[in-house]
DNA sequence: TGCTATACCTATCGCAAAGAGGTATATACC
DNA sequence: GGTATATACCTCTTTGCGATAGGTATAGCA
């Protein structure tokens, strides 16, 4: 059975974060790992084994565009959002909000724990 | 590699919902499926193939307790939270809040659109 | 008679995320 | 000079949740 859309509402948080950060400014993989760790106060720590494959996938699917640059003897690959990537971000953010609202409403049902 | 705790912060939403609903009152599996669909306005629709195995797992792990009752010729298995289950709910809710806050803060970084 | 709703169940699949590696250069420390 | 740490890239494999797709059985209605 082939899946057309519906990106599995319950996960996809790493992708959402990456897309959102790249909307602000271009970044490279190693930088994203630290940015996510720092921005979330270590609530979310994603390994390079999560980030790099995701960047490659997103680029293959046309959501990202990359350029290679050497800085201080180090080769970095900077990624930016394409228009398709912005659209994908919008959809991911919407899906996240929907789930968040749903969960929050259930959690708040007439009780405080 | 054996996992001790850390329930994979990014998912676990179905478990969180089930625990939360069972804290309110005892329910049976089929009822939970509909309760989740209704309470979330169909934002989250979990199949029976998700709910039943989860109930069995949670019971096996001591988070739930069940009793069997026949109503109108139909055999239902009602589940309630044990003290361990309440603790598990608290932890799941805390984890969810942490992730939610982290994601929200990243999403809100100086941009609208 | 047959369809729908209720109520339980398990077995398999897909895929995102986690983990564990591996390469290479720059820099700081002994 | 040697060694450890930080930077920066990479991929392979495992895991486990969630999704799908079945299956059983009874009650009730048309």
TrEMBL record, chains A, B:
Transcription regulator PadR N-terminal domain span: 18-90
A Pfam family matched in the record: PadR
Protein name according to UniProt: PadR family transcriptional regulator
Lineage: Bacteria, Pseudomonadati, Pseudomonadota, Alphaproteobacteria, Rhodobacterales
